[in-house]
């Protein structure tokens, strides 16, 4: 059933606003940047996003994709897709493995959110969300042996909603759904297609307010990295260091970190070992990948490798670092709108043979609310994992490299976040590289 939300229209008008247009009221249900973040962004001369404009841009992008493919609408369960469509949040990490929220966006733009029980108030500030309902849970933990009945009730409710807003069109895109729900949609005669494709294509080109939000998220992350760097000294653990980034992200209104990709010394080779209790030592390398969801839910995906302690790097450390640095610089410089993903792959700098086997999974990937479409592969992976696509202005990419030989003592991880412009690219990452490792 629709919620009978009652919002006092005078309350919002009576209060001053924060720079992004949200209420200047820290008791509000909406999570967002803290005063610390706003003050730091102001000192840096950054422009914050206009949240109303950003939300409208995103809904328009979804509607454009739906109408292009003559779809009745898209049904969303992925919390990042729901965030994009509604800009509402609710236990984002928990919801990734408990699909208790859903959103339907009709091709007309009418948007309905099914939220967790008794959570209607969490989206009361969002005028683009026309209805808030409950009852999207049909997974075993929540509904047990009554799961099929709950799925049937939800599907029939959705069918009525689609009929009201899309007529007899039964072409429905769905991003992720429990098996019971898919079977019920099939039973009702819906032609189900890939909603993830719809959403990735909608999300791939960022508007000006999304780019402003990304600049703010990156700035907060880089300030947090400076504070994390101060915690790096021989004798502390990897976890001690990594915890600083978490804490400083939260202080600024950031949300979570997707991974624990920080390692030191011998644990930097091979890559993907996550932060643990190892005590770091002077003269070792410390490598990390932020994978951080910062303010506004925007991903700040930066990789750096630092030298621990007040010592000179070894010749081998410098060689590895220079190889990684040169690789991402070369691969950024070739980027321009109109290039196909395959053209980027073939124009990219080949890795030296000794680093090929332990290469990173991509040489570049999209970024927005998280790692997003596209994935641009190395030559070695093009045949089996590459796919078609073209760079467009407004696409944001992370260009990265892991450099470490099989059996090597250490490895280096570097990554910058950029946006494709009308003429080339703009590097959105301001965090410095290690001069001592580049000399």
The CATH class of the largest domain turns out to be Alpha Beta
CATH architecture of the largest domain: Alpha-Beta Complex
CATH topology assignment of the largest domain: Creatine Amidinohydrolase
Radius of gyration: 23 Å
Domain count, please report it. Answer: 2
Query: Biggest sheet, strands in spatial order?
Result: 4-3-2-1-5-6
Number of strands: 17
Strand content: 15-25%
Give the proportion of residues in helices: 25-40%
Largest sheet: 6 strands, mixed
Straight-line N-to-C gap: 65 Å
The whole-number mean of residue pLDDT values reads 95
In words, what does this structure look like?
The protein has 439 residues and is an alpha+beta fold. The protein folds into two domains: 9-203, Creatine Amidinohydrolase, Chain A, domain 1 (3-Layer(aba) Sandwich), CATH 3.40.350.10; 208-438, Creatinase/methionine aminopeptidase superfamily (Creatine Amidinohydrolase). The protein has 16 helices and 17 strands. The protein has helices spanning 9-14, 35-44, 51-68, 79-86, 92-97, 140-143, 147-166, 179-187, 195-203, 208-230, 238-251, 315-333, 341-347, 353-356, 382-385, 435-438, and strands spanning 73-76, 102-106, 111-114, 131-133, 171-174, 191-194, 256-257, 262-264, 285-289, 292-293, 299-300, 303-307, 364-367, 371-376, 396-403, 412-420, 425-427. The strands form four sheets. The chain has a six-stranded mixed sheet, sandwiched between helices. Strands 14-13-15-16-17 form a five-stranded antiparallel sheet. The chain has a three-stranded antiparallel sheet with strand order 7-10-11. Helix 7 crosses helix 8 (179-187) and helix 10 crosses helix 11 (238-251).
């Amino acid at each position: 059933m629709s919620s009978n939300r009652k919002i006092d229209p005078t309350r919002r008008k009576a209060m001053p606003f924060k720079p992004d247009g949200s209420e200047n009221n820290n008791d509000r249900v909406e999570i967002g940047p803290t005063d610390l973040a706003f003050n730091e962004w102001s000192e840096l001369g950054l422009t914050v996003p206009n949240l109303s404009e950003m939300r409208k841009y995103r809904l328009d992008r979804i509607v454009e994709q739906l109408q292009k493919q003559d779809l009745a609408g898209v049904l969303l369960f992925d919390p990042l897709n729901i965030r994009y469509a509604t800009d509402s949040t609710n236990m984002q990490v928990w919801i990734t493995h408990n699909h208790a929220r859903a959103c339907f966006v009709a091709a007309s733009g009418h948007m309905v959110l099914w939220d967790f029980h008794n959570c209607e108030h969490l989206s009361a500030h969002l005028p683009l969300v026309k209805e808030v309902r409950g009852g999207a849970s049909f997974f075993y933990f929540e509904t047990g042996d009554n799961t099929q009945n709950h799925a049937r009730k939800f599907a029939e409710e959705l069918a009525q909603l689609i009929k009201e807003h899309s007529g007899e069109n039964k072409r429905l895109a769905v991003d992720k759904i429990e098996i019971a729900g898919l079977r019920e949609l099939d039973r009702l005669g819906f032609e189900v297609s890939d909603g993830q494709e719809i959403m990735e294509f909608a999300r791939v080109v960022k508007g000006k307010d999304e780019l402003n939000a990304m600049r703010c998220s990156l700035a907060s992350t880089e300030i947090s990295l400076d504070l994390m760097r101060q915690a790096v000294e021989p004798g502390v653990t990897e976890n001690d260091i990594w915890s600083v980034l978490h804490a400083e992200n939260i202080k600024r209104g950031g949300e979570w970190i997707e991974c624990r990709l920080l390692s030191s010394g011998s644990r930097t080779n091979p890559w993907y070992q996550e932060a643990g209790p190892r005590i770091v030592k002077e003269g070792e390398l410390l490598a990390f990948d932020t994978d951080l969801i910062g303010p506004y839910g925007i991903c700040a995906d930066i990789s750096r490798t630092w030298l621990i302690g007040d010592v000179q790097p070894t010749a081998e450390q410098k060689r590895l670092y220079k190889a990684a640095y040169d690789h991402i610089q070369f691969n950024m410089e070739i980027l321009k709108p109109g290039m196909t993903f395959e053209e980027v792959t073939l124009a990219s700098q080949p890795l030296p043979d000794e680093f090929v086997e332990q290469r990173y999974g991509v040489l570049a990937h999209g970024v927005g609310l998280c790692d997003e479409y596209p994935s641009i592969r190395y030559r070695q992976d093009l045949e089996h994992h590459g796919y078609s696509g073209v760079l467009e202005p407004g696409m944001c990419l992370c260009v990265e490299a892991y450099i470490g030989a099989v059996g090597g003592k250490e490895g280096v991880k570097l990554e910058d976040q950029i946006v494709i412009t009308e003429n080339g690219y703009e590097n959105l990452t301001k965090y410095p590289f290690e001069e001592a490792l580049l000399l």
